[in-house]
Amino acid sequence: MSDLCxxxxxxLLEGFNKRTISPVEATKAVLERIEKLNPKLNAFxxxxxxxxxxxxxxxxxxxxxxxxxxxxxxxVSIKDLLLTKGWPTLRGSKTVDxxxxxxxxxxxxxxxxxxxxxxxxxxxxxEFGWKGVTDSPLTGITRNPWNPQKTPGxxxxxxxxxxxxxxxxxxxxxxxxxxxxxxxxxTGLFGIKPSFGRxxxxxxxxxxxxxxxxxxxxxxxxxxxxxxxxxQADARDWHALPHEPRDWRTGLEDGxxxxxxxxxxxxxxxxxxxxxxxxxxxxxxxxxxxGARVEEKNPGFENPDPIFRTHWFxxxxxxxxxxxxxxxxxxxxxxxxxxGEKITAHELLDAQMKRGALGAHMNLFHRDYDxxxxxxxxxxAFDAGKEFPEGVKRWIDWTPFSFPFNLTQxxxxxxxxxxxxxxxxxxxxxxxxxxxxxxxxxxxxxxxTARPIVLPDISRL
Length: 461
Description:
alpha/beta; Amidase signature (AS) enzymes; eleven-stranded mixed β-sheet; two-stranded antiparallel ribbon; 13 helices; about 15% strand; globular
């Protein structure tokens, strides 16, 4: 209990309840950590001036025996793609007017406020969340707490850098092609992209119905706790699933005995770094030891890269239509948008039909297998400030395992499964049938019991 910044949200709440920790103490510790480490990691682009005031209000509620709800007093950060009342949401772009007005909370932010969470600030993102690493013309380069010379991934790179470095136990991220799972893999955290619509989102991402909102944490239990809050109803999201009045922590400890798990090292077509592949392959034995039936089996679809590019690049073109000063935009985003402008309506409709066929294919696949397990990424973290490692041309090229399941809208999570010889985390990817979020959480929790999540040694920073 000596290091408040290393505690999970669940541990903090237990301390608040027993009065061995106060929300003010926890928030002070986190703010001191932010002051110390943010200049080195660039995780936050805005730090709240009201966090201690919110923590003091929470402390009064706990002392009176009337905490607001599930997250009262827990420090949480918000990715700077999500609207937050009173704070500018600049989306990593010099083209957004900081004056606002900023009168609205996105659904996830509104739910966190209702549950008494202490909002720490906004975390960095690449411009409009367009790529799988985190640097932007507005906020510069965000760095990995395991090795600041490396990228934390993206687009929720600031969120993971914050959680991994103890700058708050919880973060809200978004995932349009892997943007929760990519950075969780690079920084050794747990993150889940829930089924599309599970967490209400408003306004809809310019990249459309591939974009999800979800939790980033350093324990599976914390992610389930956070999902209890984030998944509550919000009428502004026309795509939202009907709210399930359940506790996502229920059944977490039920294990994987008897589950049918398909393990695919490469989806049948991806090129994977040998060290990454070796670590993931060794970790599969954990599920077997816990009683699951594991079979090496590819899901049997062709590389959906062309389908995703059509969706993503046309989204980028749509996004750029509303930008008043395009010359200020990240050159890579301008390039992608220019390619998107060439996509015809016929090509987009064709991609949508192929997307539907891919989704149906995975529905059928999951009649035989409860879960699909793969590497989260094809590479370990590479140098900060680069969009991709040597040998590829776009972020999509090194994320072959993440974006297919944005197309299919399935729940998918990344959990750390080992470290490279250079000491960099590698993620294991757990994919469930659509709407089977609880099953993905349960499998991740089982894996976590055998391979506990560890945080980086921040004394080296």
